[in-house]
Amino acid sequence: MAALSADRQTKSKGVGDVFSYPVKASTTIYKGAMVMLIKSSTGAGYLEPATDATNRACVGVADEQVDNSSGADGALSCRVISGRHFAFAVSGALTAATNGQQISPADDQTVKPFNQGIGGMQTRFTSTSECWVFIPTASLGLHS
Question: Structural domain boundaries of the chain?
Answer without folding.
Answer: 12-82, 84-138
